[in-house]
Design goal:
alpha/beta, 5-stranded mixed β-sheet, 7 strands, about 25% helix, about 30% strand, globular
């Protein structure tokens, strides 16, 4: 029984992973695309996805990462065409 459970745990973690990616961002839909408006996950390394809910991520809003003092890096995909004012305001990490 315990061996079966140990094999099941990694599978459950993999299934949960895709749902966790969009959940770490607050966002708004704008004319068929996504604008990141905030970051809600534990801070550290941030990877902005190319799409959320099937829509392209094209912009990062004003102060979207404002006051995220423990963000250490942000990977921004090539589809981002606009980064708002103060997006990384007070990001000291």
């Amino acid at each position: 029984m315990q061996a079966a459970f140990q094999r099941l745990v990694p599978l459950l973690l993999l299934l949960a992973l895709p749902a966790a990616v969009p959940a770490q961002f607050a966002y708004a839909t704008n004319r068929g695309s996504i604008m990141i408006t905030g970051y809600t996950a534990p801070e550290g390394v941030v990877i902005i996805p190319n799409t959320i809910s099937g829509l392209p991520v094209t912009s990062i809003g004003n102060r979207a990462f404002g006051d995220c003092t423990n963000v250490t890096s942000v990977t921004i995909p090539g589809g981002i065409t606009n980064i708002g004012q103060g997006t990384f305001y007070f990001c000291t990490g």
